[in-house]
Amino acid sequence: MKTLAGIFVLLICSGCSSMGVEPWERDVLAKDEMQLTTDAIEAATDDHIYFSKEASSGGRGFGGGGCGCN
Amino acid sequence: MGSPCEVLCEGLDKAQSRPLLEIATREAWRIEDKFSRYLGDNVTARINEADGKPVSVDAETAQLLDFANTLYELSDGLFDITSGILRKAWRFDGSDKVPQQSEIDVLLENVGWNKVEWANSKIHMPAGMEIDLGGIGKEYAVDRAAELLRNLDATPCLINFGGDLAVTAAPKLRESWRVGIESPSGAAERQIDLQSGAIATSGDTRRFLLRDGVRYGHVLNPQTGWPVEEAPRSVTVAADTCTQAGIISILAVLRGDGAESFLQQQDEQSWIVR
Amino acid sequence: MRKLDKRDEQAISTALATATCALLGTSIPAAVQADEGEGWDFNTSVLYYGEDENRVQDLSISAIGLRTFVDDRILSLGITLDSLTGATPSGAIRQDVVQTFTRPSGSSPYDVAAGTLPLDDTFKDTRVALTANWQQPFGETSQFNVGGSLSKEYDYLHLGVNAKLARDFNKRNTTVSAGLAFAHDELDPVGGAPTGFSPMLDVGDISNRTGKQDKQIIDLVVGVSQVVSRNIVMQANYSYSYADGYLTDPYKILSVVDPVSGDTIARTALPGIDGPSHVYLFEHRPDERTKHSFYVQTKYFMEGKVLDASYRYMTDDWDIDSHTVDLRYRWPVGASSYLEPHLRFYTQTEAEFYTVSLADGATLPTHASADFRLGNFDAITAGLKYGWKTRNDNDMSVRLEWYAQSGSVPAAQLIGNQASRDNYPDLNAVIVQFGYRF
Predict the structure, then answer these.
(1) CATH label of the domain that carries residue B112
(2) ipTM exceeds 0.85, yes or no
(3) What is the secondary structure of A38-57 as a DSSP string?
(4) Which among C32, C175, C335 has CB closest to B238?
(5) What's this model's pTM, rounded to 2 decimal places?
(6) Which of A6, B230, C220, C433 is deepest in the core (most CB within 10 A)?
């Protein structure tokens, strides 16, 4: 599994250096709606609901939880 | 300008804002074409290639050179439009290629606005010297474009050329223009609410040399030929015009560890990142 | 050249203003007016989550306060208050007769009508959760993040700490991060935690109960985010989670059934005492669980519209595999509002020890649970969010979502009459959330 994770990160990374933008081309990326997490509370709410109703959790960040609901 | 030009016009759709955008863009290109040292066949090239002979310039160029002359005096020689050739020795690519003092000394002989005769719209520069108006040009273009739009239309607009920006008026639908200043470390940006005036930032942390644990920033001191010691990572200034904001921020960076005390002496609001 | 004294040399504002006027050939249009945005930003929300058929209802209020300091140091404090009521499936199966159960507290019985899904209706709780987080730059291109969390319910206490380090490369187009979290959770169930596989006892008999239980959870996340172009940003994470301790749900039971008819075995309480009408055993899960998740997300800006797509694969050593696809499409409406449809698809396989019932007389498995959340099911979420800017430039949003689970018990597990009954408690829920940021 660890090897798999390693390969995964490597695959994602290869070609990284050729991608991207210059600092002054970040106008679109700087917009609120282009942040990876747009709404922290909504994301936390969803994580909490699905944590308590499904057997999976986390992915985006830490596993969530911290309640007696599961 | 080496960076895209952004014009935000409040309350206009694409078609309505097009003429405003075109005016701002045309002005930006005009200034770029006329003064960029990278393009031949313009007034900067004529001055730099004069080979010791005097050159007469037009009124706009004269105003810019007058301005550069004032800045040289005000900054006691720290702001010098003849310092551009020092770049031949310094390549800021994150490597450890620090030049030899002898290389710098040779270049320094051709640096110094005080060696230039400037009077009556005539510039007489010793052979081998070069001027570079890049330190003023972008902010000047922002202010010129803002002025053109202001004269044309009452629509509140924001003109942003690669992070140096000015607004033509306060927006109507909200209290102010909200400007995000991206920090060099990449952490959350700082929010500045701008109702009128301009904002400019100097300093760039991605361009540096590193040797023996010493980090050499990319702003050069024209008197020593070496990067400014203890330069702040970035200085952002809000002022009446983009030109003023840009000059105060670059002068603060040039002061190195004296940046804070310099900024405290000025009337303008500023934000410094070390 | 005029020689300046030290003071003059420094204060250049006035001289510069004069020189600028000469340069631009105009008077200065308007004096600058700039203020740094308020130090505190708040993100608040009210949420209603309601399941049909009188199952779980949750009313939740949350607030996050964000204080930005100079040099990009950020303090974030969060609070959530949950008020939960309603009933949850106990794990017992439907019967053609009335079933009587002892409440988790052990102090009284309750009946479930013939043919209905047994729900434990004692679910009522208030939860307070607090989070605190500190973020600051670490050297030139890195950021450091530390945080803590605390959550308290009547029967549950969670304490957690976490830390994360992120580093930027390639003109900040690539960010690599690694984080570690540790949690210590304590369960103090009403009436005490039952011993795994012990039977549900008569009212007043708590001989199968133990005291407090606890578990420890370690989470590790490594990730990369990458700016692909001016309009596209991507993220990929791998996370590892290891839980150790009491992982059983102390309120969940299993029906013990006749190996031929599939009906739950009847029993009688001691004379004069109330007690369960049938034989039920408390569930028993392994005391360790290791999970691995792979998560990828991309955001794509298309002329004002933003597509947000993510996929997660999770696998664990309980044999649960799950796939989650989440899609959001933000559609601007006018200059200052937007609509955002949301679709989410989820599917999971059952845990290796998931079973709908236990056959009487057969050897007990090492572990067993009839908790539908460990079963085989699919879920769909469909929602719509509307967000707009208020007059004073704050953000408001409201969203309405439907969440539906539908599962099935593997045919091989069904015994006798069970095949003709609906054994899987499908779930339908509605989510309404109102958000305000200022």
Answers:
(1) 3.10.520.10
(2) yes
(3) S-HHHHHHHHHHHHHHSS--
(4) C32
(5) 0.72
(6) C433
